[in-house]
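Following the same procedure, sequence and fold were stored together, as reproduced here:

>
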Amino acid sequence: MNACPNIAGREIKRRRNFTYFGLFLTLLTIALIGYQQYEGLLRALVFIPAMSMMIPLLEVRSKTCIVNAFLGLKNMGHKYEKEKNEAFLKEQRKESLKLVVKGIILSSLITILMMII
């Protein structure tokens, strides 16, 4: 079993828009930090918008909603339905946990870059 998507259509478009908004916030935060020449831990504030960009981006790529996976739901573009297949649900939950870890790692890398630059 490779993938068990639990979102499609309109939900993917929504998350893609959240990704663009998160990218805008991340770039804006980086610009403000650079312009104000903040030092030290204030540079770590970029983690929050970076995370708001990474999670929806990873959800779009895998077609798996983190919240839906843990609630046992799927929304394939029309309406929310209960996931009846336990194997799919288990796979979705495993995938969503991977997405969270990847999001934290990638956001942390962006933050570390901001700290050393």
In short: The chain has a mean pLDDT of 90. Strands lie at 73-75, 80-82.
